[in-house]
Amino acid sequence: MRPPVNFCQVCGHALVDRMAYGQMRRVCPECNYIHFSDPKVAAVVFIERENHVLLVRRRVNPERGKWALPAGYIDDGEDPRSAARREVAEETGLDVKITRLLDVQAGSPDSGASIVIIYAAQALSGTAQAHDDVDGVLWYAAGDPLPELAFDSTRTMLDAWITRPRDSAAPE
Question: Residues 119, 157: one domain?
Answer without folding.
Answer: yes
